[in-house]
Write a structure and sequence with these properties.
Blueprint: E1 23-27, H1 33-45, E2 50-54, H2 61-64, H3 67-70, E3 73-76, H4 79-88, E4 92-96, E5 103-104, E6 114-118, H5 127-130, E7 135-138, H6 150-164
Parallel strand pairs: 1-2, 1-6, 2-3, 4-6, 4-7, 5-7
Helix pairs in contact: 1-6
Pfam family, one: SpoU_methylase
GO molecular function, one term: RNA binding
EC number: 2.1.1.34
């Protein structure tokens, strides 16, 4: 195939899903408006059903772009009560964190009804949230520093979920 065999398309239309994604992103209180805005943008690209935010971080519409308008975003004072309710609704709570028994994301099988729980950039996931999780996955790091940026890691995890469930 030669380069002339490809046509440049600036933005392809979204891929239609057979069913809506039953994937929720729940963010512990983050420190950076930029990280939260990047997470919202990626969540929107992945057709996440909603984003749960704690704390008073602001979403920058220039970074989040259409995600800030298209994606349901709910704000809560505390994450544990919300996670307990979602667990009762049948969602599996999966933390994205490095812990003693976390599983390499490359060897983890998501379920359709998943809440991906994202920890704070510096302190990680608080203990009261960790105790509620069904699973914890981590993304292997091969250099320094010891972990990826929270927005980058969230993007990788969302992409892996979409890879496992490409049609919704």
């Amino acid at each position: 195939m030669q380069m002339s065999d490809f046509e440049h398309l600036r933005h392809k239309p979204p891929t239609a899903l057979d069913e809506p994604r039953q994937l929720i992103v729940a963010c512990c209180q983050l420190r950076s408006n930029v990280n939260l805005s990047r997470i919202v943008r990626t969540a929107s690209c992945c057709a996440v059903s909603r984003v749960i935010v704690t704390g008073n971080m602001k979403i920058d519409p220039k970074i989040a772009r259409d995600g800030a308008e298209q994606l349901p975003i709910s704000r809560h004072r505390s994450l544990p009560p919300v996670l307990r309710d979602l667990k009762k609704e049948g969602y599996r709570l999966v933390g994205l964190e490095q812990t003693t028994n976390s599983v390499d994301i490359h060897h983890f099988s998501f379920v359709r009804n998943t809440v991906l729980v994202i920890g704070n950039e510096r302190q990680g996931t608080p203990d009261d949230v960790l105790r509620l999780l069904d699973d914890v996955v981590e993304i292997p790091v091969y250099g320094m520093p010891y972990s990826f940026n929270v927005a980058t890691a969230t993007s990788m995890a969302l992409y892996e979920f979409c890879r496992q469930f490409p049609t919704g």
